[in-house]
Amino acid sequence: MPFNRLFYLALFSLLAGCGEPQQASNVDYDQVYPAVGGGNMINAMIGEPSGLIPMIAGESAASAIASNIFNSLLKYDRNLELEGELAESWMISADHRTITFKLKPDMQWADGQPLTSADVLFTWQLVTDENTRTPYGSDYKLVIKAETPDALTFRVSYQEPYAPALDTWAGLQILPKHLLEGQDINTTTFARNPVGSHYYKLGQWRNGERISLVRNPLATQGEARIERLVSRFIPDAASQFLELMADNIDTMNLNPIQYARIFPSRPDLTEKIGLYKELGNSYTYLGFNLKRKPFDDIRVRQAINYAINKQELIDGVLLGLGEPVSSPYKPGTRWTNPELQPYPYDSQKAIALLKEAGYADHDGDGILDKDGKPLTFEMLTNQNKQREMSAVLIQRRLKEIGIDARIRVLEWASFIGRFIKTGEFDAVVLGWSLSLDPDQYSIWHSSQQAPGQFNFIGYSNPQVDRLLEQGRLELDIEKRTKIYHEFARLLQEDSPVVYLYAGYGLPAIHKRIKGIDDPAPPAGIGHNSHEWYIPQPLRRLEISAQ
Amino acid sequence: MRRALSNPMALGGFVIIAIIMLLAVSAPLIVPFDPEAIDVKSILLPPSSTHWMGTDGLGRDVFSRMLYGARVSLMVGIVAVGIATLIGIVLGSISGYYRGWVDVFIMRLVDVMLSIPTFFLILAVIAFLTPSIWNIMIVIGLTSWMGVTRLVRAEFLSLRNREFVMASETLGARDGRLIFRHLLPNSLTPIIVSSVLGVASAVLVESGLSFLGLGVQAPQSSWGNILTDGKEYIEFAWWLSLFPGLAILITVLGYNLLGEGLRDALDPRSSN
Amino acid sequence: MIRYLLNRIFWMVPLLIGISLISFFIMHLAPGDITASEASFDPRASEESRQKLRELYNLDKPVIVQYGLWLKRMATLDFGTSFASHQRPVFWQTTDEQGNVRKGMIQQALPITLLINVLSLVLIIAVALPLGVISALTRNRAPDRAITLFVFIGFAIPGFWLALMLMYWTGVVNNWLPISGLHSIGYENMGAIAQIFDTLKHLVLPVFISGLSGLAGISLFVRNGMLDVLHQDYITTARAKGLSENTVVYGHALRNALLPLITIFGLSIPGLIGGSVIAESIFAIPGMGKLFYDAVLMRDFPVIMGILTIGAALTLIGNLLADLAYAWADPRVRRGVMQ
Q: Around Cβ C197, how many Cβ atoms within 10 Å?
């Protein structure tokens, strides 16, 4: 019967196609090419920005793209030191309460209009306006007076010296007054059609599919090299990886397994894709609800800290691509206290501490107990693979010393709404993504424990409170460093959380992109992305300019 | 029953399911490794003589996880369908037997439930509750009773007018007796077929939920979550995708074959 | 007939209200709201602003009050605006005084979902019908067995697994099809024909994956329907009358076997607007599935309610149309109704 034959034919051709991926072309990616302008760089993002006005749309997808369009008064250089961006210099008054920024002359917006201090003032007014739907206003509301003595000068005064101030000015992206004045910032179509002053301007936004940025010839920092940046929205990580393998995207963030196991075993991939690693400004931790037993007992917290093998976490969850943490900061920065070490893995010590606290296995069921109650608690975490894996490893180690730790994985909004906000949790596995300023008042100060605030673990230590308050007032960097080192030391002793690790970001970038600063400086490899270039012979088939 | 098993499809399906159930039930006895035993030195190993199906991202033995996963996937299917069928039989019998406004009310309720897209409903509810294995089973059950209800009701409506029913009624048989001794047993065929097919569908739904991160959670293993864990390495760590994928395929196939085979065999219309 | 129609239409309104009420309450069972989104765990963000947002959206009022407000708006067919920071209209675009157009969210996601679903339907009809007929005609012989096996496997295979494998094979191993997305990078600069081809190429895998289980189901259904019909008396009569086999099969049997199909298609109308979240996520397609899923995770209530309401309305209409079409097509019912 004809159908039978057709069937077998189809089956055969199906199987015949299985096999090795296509042969790589004979392009030599390691050759040295001169730097030229032009070319497209395509990257993938998991989510789509809700808008491109930085103060309104705070999610990572939006800020990743908006940071190419807008810039701020200050920025961080490759070593994470502050330098001027829109400002060419700044001065702090003798009483430390006033900062005067001097803007660069002859700056323009992408539409050709001049960029002056009026724009800076306008942006500050917007972010502190009660009607602006932004969660980021609080830092800027500390400014009691903002003035523009002339078109190139912007001056702000604070009630008290505010050490994190400069960092906040590096984080406020300046918006154009001439386009936004009179508009409702919350609903303006500027969010879909932004005009900025940085290396790129919006080329095209295909809803749900991609955003294309084109080079801005009027950029205040000079022109970038790559002509177009395309960000494709690909929600699934498996699909992203397939696109990377098929050479349809140029960059992607890898997970440790892809970085450490897949790529090394695939010479056809490493031939055309380069791997980089950079330490991000975040750390993952196990946090205790200090208002609940047994976590109100410092010995229990320290015991758990000793019982967790952090190197095992780094090896198992991150395949070695992470660093241990002993201060609440990114390892290697000046704020981390060099004298502190993480609690070593010592199960004997853990058991001893718990015994001291009154916990022993009285009923022989393998779980420690005290006053008839077993030592058991629930660890909550969100749907993040690494955090889940960490929780599983922690659970195993705790089981070994007789603690029954259960794991519950929750969807984010439920997690925050039902458990964190209400304080209804035992322990959490979460991470902090930090700003570059060492101030952590909102996370650790005892006044920040109201529902919805960030000291949700309920930490209260008057000495730490004082240090945090001092740290905000002290502008001298050496003295400030001492304050935060002492702060870190106290936290380490108290162990309100167990620092687990700081993971590396693992970007994979196609080798057609040249000019990457490798190994990554403290600011990450992206810091000089405007200097990257794509040599002519390595470019994709150009679909003509748009 | 003999007629049922003589149908090759039904027989084939039955054999497949029997084997898988056997494996699932005997899992604790035959499992070579502790499915939750992490070994960071054995991450992502390909199948070998020690690890027949390789290891996963935390070094756990995949074969062991697959065996336990069988228990989970099957349990989800069976319990969910059990709940759905129970609700369906209750509501369908009441609706088909008593008719009148009760029937209208129940049918409107079915309409309402059918109007809300099932997967959406499951998604929404599980996103709100914590995705534990029990919640998943209950939610799938609570959202798939509508088909059974309609089936049972249809059977009752058509049977009600048959002679034996009217005869029993004339003889003064009480409602309960009618329902349980006469109507229900004669409606069994479509209910059984629908339940069997329902298990297949529930297993697939669980794997879909795992893909979205809302299925059975770590450290428990289900075929859905093993498959999802490995989806970023389908080419490199093919064993993480192949085995659970095939397992789901074969299991669902088995149930579908059994269901369709039963339908063929027990349905009086299709005799040659 | 008219009475029946009016009765059904009359019931639709309370049903819709009932559905929306149930949906609304289920939605509010969830802990958390729009303010618990990604930026909420940024230490630089403040709680007061989130509280203000909650007040702005009436999230602090009792649920029944919120429902009442929503119902009042819906009575004027105003679907409202999204809670997300962009505040786009939920359903259709709005134009403000300056002539700025803000596109509606459903307006943008629906066409692509409709396209995929309609193409799926076309695929199903074009492939499942012949397969079902062939299967029925060659009952229990090799082609029937092969088709049945293929159908069952199609039914049983986890969609996302097959999708990823196909994407790998057609996109990475061989450069036949794009892997994800809807349009290639240089789409705007292509000619019209090239654009159509480009879009179709991107839709091959999504349509296939979406339609696979439907394909399997309908094939089986057609097969069984044909088998049922082929054993009926009137078919034997037709054969006895000496009609050609073709006339018997295609003229009589097929037509009658397809009647129940109408009901099925009617019932699948609401499914037309439901995108598969999984397929859309894997293929990076911005359709209704992803829209709904994201809205659920973000607790974007206006969008959730908008989609559920439209879906419910379509279901009710689809049911009605299916029943009407069946009544019209089945001469037994039609004659009965006319009497």
A: 12
Residue of A nearest to B45 (CA): A261
Selected residue of C81, C185, C187, C205 to mutate for chain A interface (largest A Cβ count, 10 A): C185
Contact A316 B231 (CB under 8 A): no
Q: Is B253 within 8 Å of C29 when comparing Cβ atoms?
A: no
Decide if C34 contacts C53 (C-beta within 8 A): yes
- Measure the CA dihedral A114/A117/A121/A122, to 10°: -10
Residues near B267 by beta carbon (within 8 Å), at least 6 away in sequence: B189
CA–CA gap between residue A76 and residue A86 (Å, rounded): 12
> Is the bond into A519 cis (omega within 30 degrees of 0)?
yes
Taken in order C134, C137, C140, C141, the sign of the CA dihedral is negative
pLDDT at residue number A14: 46
| Average pLDDT estimate for A260-288 | 92
For residue C303, CA distances in Å to A158, C24, C72 come to 42, 12, 16
The tokens describing A133, both together, are 């739907």
Distance separating alpha carbons of residues C172 and C179, to the nearest angstrom? 8
At C41 the pLDDT is 65
- Cβ distance A388 to B218 less than 8 Å, yes or no, reads yes
Q: Between residues 18 and 47 of chain B, which touch chain A (CB distance below 8 Å)?
A: 36, 38, 40, 43-44
Buried b (16+ CB within 10 A) or exposed e, C116-135: bbebbbebbeeebbebbbbb
What confidence tier does C312 reach under pLDDT thresholds 50, 70, 90? confident
**Nearest Cα residue in chain C from A234:** C284
B188 CB-near residues (< 8 Å, 6+ apart): none
Return the pLDDT at C335.
53
Residue of B nearest to C320 (CA): B111
Kindly report, residue by residue over B129-187, the tens digit of the pLDDT.
777 788 888 888 888 888 888 888 888 877 777 766 677 777 776 776 666 776 777 77
pLDDT at A21 over 60: no
Angle at alpha carbon of residue A174, lines to A172 and A179, rounded to 5°: 145
What is the distance in angstroms between the Cα of C261 and the nearest Cα belonging to chain A?
25
